[in-house]
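Reading a protein record of the kind used here takes only a little practice. An example makes this concrete, so a full record is given next.
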Amino acid sequence: MALPIVEQHLRINSYESDLNANIKAVSLQNLLQEVAYRGSEFCKCGPSVMKDRGIFWALNRIHFHIYDYPRWEDDVVLQTWSRGQAGPLWHRNFRMLKDGQVSVLGTSAWTVVDLKERSIYRGDLGFDPTFHHPEDTLPLCSKIIVPKDLESVPSEPHTVRWSDLDTNGHANNCAYTQWVLDALPLDYVRTHLLRDVQVNYHREVHYGEQVDLFISRDADKWYITGKTGDLTCFVESLEFD
């Protein structure tokens, strides 16, 4: 019996690459998010089906680790599968292969949200258990804890713009990673290789909202907290070589 793994063959484009010709973290995250939607279609719960039922997939957490950077014009294979449900969270894994070897591993956690109530939907999704595959890539996504002894330094805030918005009418999940990287010192990001990205999403942000960014650093691991007023929107951790 074939494994319930959705697979896409891709070529890394120039507009997805940085000045070193490596894939940008935000481009990689976009690819993971898009293949996740293809994976949900395979499970008979794709975006169009969910919309007709008045519900949608909301990304709660994501974690990916880059072992061997995909580069401009590289041909890669991107795989995804449902890991199944744990509590209110549905877990989905990712694997990217380059020349047959692991390039990127990732995992994510999603909730199903009622469009009208904007609350977690707890009804039956009708998943066939054979659509799930128990293989893990990385440990299931966990809560990011910023060490209390680290200094938190405010950075330049980001105002949500038209280009940040997605089809749900709020800032796209992947945009947060772009804001965070733009907030880090240029001399650092140009001379260090990003290896590990984790994001916890807490609330949506909409057009015109100001997101205040607070940065903490522990050697080559950075923590960035995004807030609107006193409310935390997201927490992201980035680890560099």
Notes: The first helix runs from residue 25 to 42. The mean pLDDT is 94. The radius of gyration is 18 Å. Residues 10 and 172 are 22 Å apart (CA to CA).
